[in-house]
Amino acid sequence: METKEQLAKLGLFDAKVPRYTSYPTAPHFAQGVDSSHFTDWIGAIAPGSEISLYLHVPFCRRLCWFCACRTQGTQSDKPVLAYLETLKAELAMLGNLLPEGVRLSRLHWGGGTPTLLPAGMMRDLAGAIADVAPFSRSYEFSVEIDPNEVDEDRLAALAAAGMNRASVGVQDFNEEIQQSIGRIQGYEVTRDAIEAIRGHGVHSLNADILYGLPHQTRERITESVQKLLSLNPDRVALYGYAHVPWMAKRQQLIPSDSLPTPQERLELFETARKLFLWDNYAEIGIDHFAAQSDGLTVAQKAGKLRRNFQGYTDDPAEVLIGLGASSISRFPQGYAQNAPATGAYTGRIREGMFATSRGHIFSDEDKLRGRMIEALMCDFRIDTAELVERFAIPAAQVVEMFEAAARQFPDVLDITPERLFIPPEARALTRMIARSFDAYEMSASGHSSAI
Ligand SMILES: C[S@@+](CC[C@H](N)C(=O)[O-])C[C@H]1O[C@@H](n2cnc3c(N)ncnc32)[C@H](O)[C@@H]1O
Ligand code: SF4
């Protein structure tokens, strides 16, 4: 392992860096992309191809203090129903444009809390999606589930609609930590939700937990990970808690002095990581762990792991369409993001127009750099031959870029003319190394701690 002093010297404990779920990252999207681009790009999808669909539900019954997601609290179903009608209208507009024979390889309902939809609304939404495109043969339909906000009826509706992967938010099991992040969720609540999910025949289960939370210690994260392991998740996302109170105002309820230092964050991550590895989980990229039989592990072994807005994926589709307020679509031509505010999004759809408000059109250089960053985030290596073949560029150009990165990270990168490799002991630096391939100026604000 690189010593803490070496990592400190390279800036790991001070840097703010993106998580690179896209390239360029969303803060660099601009207004030059609008609904005409979105429409053209949908029209260019090959008939009969497989695409992915993401649906965003920006509502929650509870508003957890730690949460940096864009969501609004509501106890009433009225705004949810109005939003659902808008989503269905957007789906119908999409259905009118999609070329013949398109199928869904992936469908994801995210949020917010999609499970706050009553069962009837879930059936309605699933029906509207089925009218637009059927699932492909090896489809995956996943839903983000708040264990506090789900019941038998809703799980039955989701299972009947084809849900075959559930993603459960855990964060941490320790009570003091739960109180300090404004998210109370007893172990039994999580356990019972998982049992109910499996009882409905949904056998792929993801769980999200966080390191770097207030009052989190190595002992506490050990206990939380052990409790999580007793529930046998197929996939775990171990995210670093992003404390960005200037963006997520609720986080102002979490005093900065209750947070672990960056050095302690690294120890917390390492502690949790070792427990997953001891339990025979495969390490996937920078922050995921997956059972040996899980699709992510299989994709990683086959060199087919990809990175998208949901983190890591084994989805081979070239097109991901995001519907709902703030959702981002990815096409071979570029990114298109819907208006972030629910009101603005709803207004546009009601006028019969798509709600694209900004995005980015890829240049050839974006595609090259984007692939280099994705390869680092997924495989910790970049292969010269792959880039030469895919982008028809001279190997010397790639090697020059490797050397420029090596100058920024002396004695860290393992470089030959054939490849750049981040050795295991330097992987904490992966996002910083990825940033050295990012041609856009990165402002510190809006990004989270490098560890
Ligand atoms: C959009 S939330 C939806 C989860 C669902 N509503 C629930 O509460 O279980 C998905 C995940 O984002 C992660 N997340 C939210 N805020 C975060 C933050 N500030 N830093 C890191 N991860 C965060 C959490 O792990 C959460 O489970
Ligand atoms: S963690 Fe889930 S329930 Fe809590 S505010 Fe965020 S999206 Fe809503």
Helix content: 25-40%
Structural class comes to alpha/beta
Let me know the average pLDDT.
95
**How many strands in all?**
21
Largest sheet composition: 9 strands, mixed
Which spans have pLDDT < 50 for at least 5 consecutive residues? Answer: none
The dominant shape is globular
N- to C-terminal distance: 15 Å
User: Please, how many helices?
Assistant: 15
Computed Rg: 21 Å
Bound molecules: S-adenosylmethionine, iron/sulfur cluster
Strand order of the largest sheet: 10-11-9-8-7-6-5-2-14
Q: What's the multimeric state?
A: single chain
Strand content: 15-25%
Explain the overall architecture.
With 451 residues, the protein is of the alpha/beta class. Helices cover 37% and strands 22% of the residues. It is built from 15 helices and 21 strands. The protein has helices spanning 4-9, 35-43, 78-97, 119-132, 152-160, 175-180, 187-199, 218-229, 262-278, 295-301, 342-350, 364-379, 384-391, 395-408, 430-435, and strands at residues 16-17, 50-57, 59-60, 72-73, 103-111, 135-145, 165-171, 204-211, 235-240, 282-284, 288-290, 306-308, 311-313, 320-323, 328-331, 334-338, 356-361, 381-383, 414-416, 419-421, 448-449. The strands form six sheets. It has a nine-stranded mixed sheet with strand order 10-11-9-8-7-6-5-2-14, sandwiched between helices. Helix 4 links the parallel strand 5 (103-111) and strand 6. The longest helix is centred in the N-terminal third of the chain and has 20 residues, at 78-97. It is globular and about 60 Å long. The protein starts with a helix and ends with a strand. The model has no long low-confidence stretch (mean pLDDT 95). S-adenosylmethionine (SAM) binds next to strand 7 and strand 8. Iron/sulfur cluster is lined by residues 60, 62-64, 67, 69, 71, 111-113, 146, 169.
